[in-house]
Specification:
The chain has 39 helices and ten strands. By secondary structure, the protein is mainly α. Among the domains are: about 240 residues; about 200 residues, Phosphatidylinositol 3-/4-kinase, catalytic domain (Phosphatidylinositol 3-kinase Catalytic Subunit, Chain A, Domain 5, Orthogonal Bundle), CATH 1.10.1070; about 80 residues; about 120 residues, no CATH class. The strands form two sheets. Strands 1, 2, 3, 4, 5, 6 and 7 form a seven-stranded antiparallel sheet that branches. Strands 8-9-10 form a three-stranded antiparallel sheet. A hairpin with a 4-residue loop joins strand 9 and strand 10. Helix 31 crosses helix 37. The protein is elongated and about 175 Å long. The chain starts with a helix and ends with a helix.
């Protein structure tokens, strides 16, 4: 509820703005005195506020009825005139009756004070209903008819008469015959193939063949006949104009007889080609007549030709001043309203596919207004697009960033008069770009003829200028043949490189500066040319961006006009919109048209510089006002176009949708029945043969049933046997796997046993070796202990007495003993000998001291042993125990002996680790280090002695 109340406050603010701004415009005369940008900006703001109020009304009108209903009555009518398409779109389709009544109230105010602004859409919507129109439309039409009866009468007359002029009867018939021609030829070819196949059937008589061919012809041509009869019915009503009388006199009987002849099956196959010939003659006659470029209005709409000083508002100028209460009874032309005074006598026929008509209307102001009367299209699309372009143009002119850059869009008025016709304002002083291109082609052709001398021949008709399609196919077909591709394949499958090459060749043949030169030649000087070029760049940029946003397609050169007086580019025909071009047989994938001639006319910078800046500015303005654009486009959601809901039908004679599917189904069923009739004889033969063979088939089926039962029993037994066989195979596979695993395990165990046997032999040998080492150790230690106990230290001491050997170690004594006098020995050598003798004496003395210390230690050690060690130390030592354990382990290998040896070993290990083993080991290591030190010193002395002897010489 709070959200709804906020929308109510917003609507109140917008309505106050509309009231104040309109009052200010009326009081100050803003429309006449203030500059254009200010008027455009005010108009944009007014449109924005009006659309927001309408948006709130459509979405929350029921909840805000008490707030909106009194407030809407204070809004002036001019803002509502700008959004009449949105009001009519929801007048009959809104689900809430409260909102419909509020919309009806707004339109009622317009009907009372500004009837010209709503008279056209009111009558168009009322005429669109096949039955009774909605209640709101009836009230609105009743109000207009009561207050302005002559206005309604005149406008209805103009709408009806213009409807007759839009598409003439000969145009309807020519279009119908041209559309049906291809389909008829295809069906005739199918019938010829069927007739040829039937002719080969020898089981049918000639009368039966003719009957079948006639039935197939009637079935195949049924949709064509329905379309022709509907067209004949639509043009067989009582003629209302001299032109319709002429058509009846010229073609009615001819068409009736042609239809009757076409409905009658041809007598033979060769006559199938003549079935459509009468309509070809009619089409040729109609095409010859339609080469006329104009027709008299008295012939096609005599009441329009007689119309004078009507109250019909001029199309495109119906949004004018309001009517006061006192002037409501006066005629419209007395209040300054431009109305239709009369129509021009001649109606020009434009030579395009839809044959639009060019009308010149004289206004009540004395001016002539030109319009294009176009049919076979829902021009509500163009009218709504024009409303959108008008709003965008206001945004561009009111924006500071775009107003000074000549950015604008040329638009024109579009007034629908029915769901399939409307009046389009004729844009003056413009020429299509295709006309510019064609003029260049004519100039080139004349120059070529003059160059070869052909231009001087009198009476000779120059060859026709090739059309763009002829130029394209003249290049694409040879290019496809070079690639080995036939033209008959789908255009989608043409190679991309071939199409690109043809496009580049065609671009080279067309001058890039074509539009640039036309702009230059249409300018008085460089200043004028520069101004036109800027306007051209601005209009191209604006329409390119807007066209891209709208998904605008069908931008061929006839739909793009140039105003060389101002430089503006004008786009027409907005029928292919909202990316409809991407769904065509040959899809349009470019966002907008920007070919080389357009790009060259943009100036030196091309698509960069000014053009790019303009495009960015336009996109910025569109983004800034996207909410307004979306609200304007919502009208297509509320009130879809005719072709979006019922298909693209031009008239009542067209067949489409479900009706076409039903007809095709009926044709298929008829052809099927004819096919059955065609093969009736073979079918009867097969039927008789089937009846004769049924008894044999029955007995065969009984035998087959017995065999089938036996087969099912055998299949059951076989299935069981197969199941048992599968189980046995599974068990066999399992057993083989178990045996394989056992074999592998046995091999592994055997290998492991061999490894353990080798390791056991090695362990046994190692135990024997260690046992022998232990025995040797006990023997050696026993001898040493015996020696220590038997006082052998004195003998050892006497043996190691070194002082008596000092003489023998002296070098000087050795020289004298050798009988060599010392006088012949050099003094340095003698001094060296003395030094060595002195060092040797010192070393001997130290060695003596060491030996004495060792002897003393041994004596102390001997006394300690005698006091500490028992006599049975060897037999009670750990080594003796290990020797006994090892010998026991080697001698017997039984488990009991090994267990005993393991237990004794564990006890011995526990006993040894319990003693102070680490201190004993440390003392032993210290003693070993000292012995090693003395040994190294003796070796050093021996080396020095050897060196000295070598220096003296062996002979000396």
């Amino acid at each position: 509820m709070r959200r709804v109340s906020l929308f109510g406050h917003a609507a109140h603010g917008f309505i106050q703005y509309l009231s104040y701004s309109s009052a200010k415009i009326c009081n100050s005369g803003l429309a006449d005195s203030d500059p254009e940008p200010l008027k455009q900006k005010t108009g944009s703001y007014t449109l924005r506020a009006t659309l927001y109020v309408l948006h709130i009304l459509l979405n929350y009108g029921a909840e805000l009825k008490d707030i909106l209903e009194p407030a809407l009555s204070t809004v002036p009518l001019s803002p509502w005139q700008e959004v009449t398409p949105q009001l009519f779109a929801r007048l009959s389709s809104h689900p809430e009756q409260v909102v419909r009544k509020q919309l009806e109230g707004l339109l009622m105010m317009l009907a009372k004070q500004s009837p010209w602004s709503i008279v056209y859409p009111t009558l168009v919507d009322v005429n669109a209903y096949e039955e009774k129109p909605s209640e709101e439309l009836q009230h609105l039409l009743g109000c207009l008819s009561e207050l302005y009866p002559r206005l309604i009468q005149d406008v209805q007359l103009v709408i009806n008469e213009l409807g007759n002029v839009t598409v003439l009867w000969e145009e309807l018939w020519l279009s119908t015959l041209q559309d049906l021609h291809t389909d008829v030829m295809r069906r005739i070819n199918v019938l010829k193939e069927e007739a040829a196949r039937i002719a080969e059937n020898v089981t049918l008589s000639q009368s039966e063949k003719n009957k079948i061919n006639a039935a197939k012809y009637s079935a195949m041509m049924a949709p064509i006949v329905v379309a022709l009869e509907r067209r004949l019915s639509s043009t067989s009503r009582k003629p209302e104009t001299p032109h319709e009388v002429w058509f009846h006199e010229e073609y009615k009987d001819w068409l009736k007889s042609a239809i009757i002849a076409f409905k009658t099956p041809p007598a033979s196959t060769t006559a199938l080609g003549d079935a459509w010939r009468s309509f070809d003659s009619v089409a040729a006659s109609l095409a010859s007549y339609q080469r006329k470029s104009s027709i008299s209005l008295r012939e096609v709409a005599p009441q329009l030709a007689l119309l004078s000083s009507s109250d019909v508002p001029m199309p495109g100028l119906e949004k004018q001043d309001t009517v006061s209460e006192s002037d409501r009874g006066l005629s419209a032309n007395l209040q300054g309203i431009v109305t239709i005074a009369s129509f021009s006598e001649e109606v020009a026929i434009i030579s395009t596919k839809t044959k639009p008509k060019k009308l010149v209307i004289l206004g009540s102001d004395g001016q002539k207004y030109t319009y294009l009367l176009k049919g076979r299209e829902d021009l509500r699309l163009d009218a709504r697009i024009m409303q959108l372009l008008q709003a965008i143009n206001g945004f561009l002119h009111s924006s500071v960033a775009t107003h000074s850059h000549f950015l604008g869009i040329r638009y024109y008025s579009v007034t629908p008069i029915s769901g399939r016709a409307g009046l389009i304002q004729w844009v003056g002083n413009v020429i299509s770009i295709y006309s510019v291109f064609k003029s260049w082609q004519n100039r080139v052709q004349l120059a070529q003829l003059s160059a070869v001398g052909g231009g001087n021949s009198k009476g000779s008709v120059p060859p026709a200028v090739p059309r763009p399609s002829d130029m394209f196919y003249g290049k694409i077909i040879p290019a496809l043949k070079e690639k080995g591709i036939r033209r008959v394949i789908s255009r989608r499958d043409w190679p991309h490189e071939v199409k690109r090459k043809v496009l580049m060749d065609l671009m080279k043949e067309t001058p890039r500066q074509l539009l640039y030169q036309e702009l230059w030649c249409a300018s008085e000087g460089f200043k004028s040319f520069s101004s036109k070029q800027k306007r051209f760049s601005g209009s191209v940029a604006a329409m390119s961006m807007v066209g891209h946003i709208l998904g605008l397609g069908d931008r061929h050169l006839d739909n793009i006009l140039m105003d060389f007086c101002s430089g503006d580019m004008v786009h027409i025909d907005y029928n292919v919109c909202f990316d409809k071009g991407q769904r065509l047989k040959i899809p349009e994938i470019v966002p907008f048209r920007l070919t080389q001639t357009i790009e060259a006319a943009l100036g030196m910078t091309g698509i960069e510089g000014t053009f790019r800046s303009n495009c960015e500015s336009v996109i910025g303005v569109l983004r800034k006002n996207k909410d307004i654009l979306l609200m304007l486009l919502e009208v297509f959601v509320w009130d879809p176009l005719v072709e979006w809901t019922r298909g693209d039908f031009h008239d009542d004679a067209a067949i489409g949708g479900e009706e076409r599917k039903g007809m095709e189904l009926a044709v298929s069923l008829s052809l099927f029945a004819s096919r059955v009739q065609e093969i009736r004889v073979p079918l009867q033969e097969h039927h008789d043969l089937l009846l004769s063979t049924l008894p044999a088939v029955e007995s065969a089926l009984e035998r087959f049933a017995d065999v089938l039962n036996q087969y099912e029993l055998a299949s059951t037994l076989f299935y069981r046997a197969d199941q048992e066989r599968s189980n046995l195979i599974l068990h066999e596979t399992t057993a083989k796997a178990i045996v394989s695993d056992a074999t592998i395990n046995s091999e592994k165990i055997r290998a492991l046993f061999e490894i353990q046997a080798r390791e056991f032999a090695q362990a046994k040998a190692l135990v024997a070796e260690k046992s022998q080492e232990a025995a040797t150790w006990m023997e050696q230690h026993g001898r040493i202990l015996d020696a220590l106990r038997s006082n052998l230290l004195q003998e050892i001491n006497a043996f190691l007495e070194l002082s008596s050997m000092q003489e023998n170690l002296s070098l000087t004594s050795a020289v004298l003993v050798a009988g060599v006098p010392l006088t012949i020995v050099p003094e340095p050598t003698q001094a060296q000998c003395y030094d060595i003798d002195r060092e040797v004496a010192q070393l001997v003395s130290e060695l003596d001291d060491g030996i004495s210390s060792a002897t003393a230690a041994l004596e102390v050690y001997s006394l300690a042993l005698q006091r500490i060690l028992p006599l049975n130390y060897i037999t009670t030592s750990a080594v003796h125990g290990w020797s006994h354990i090892l010998q026991l382990s080697v001698s017997a290998l039984s488990s009991d002996i090994l267990s005993l040896a393991r237990r004794q070993g564990s006890e011995l290990i526990t006993k040894v680790h319990g003693d102070n083993f680490d201190s004993i080991k440390h003392s032993h290591d210290d003693l070993c280090l000292r012995v090693e030190k003395y040994s190294l010193e003796i070796e050093k002395l021996e080396e020095e002695c050897a060196e000295l002897v070598h220096s003296i010489g062996l002979e000396t």
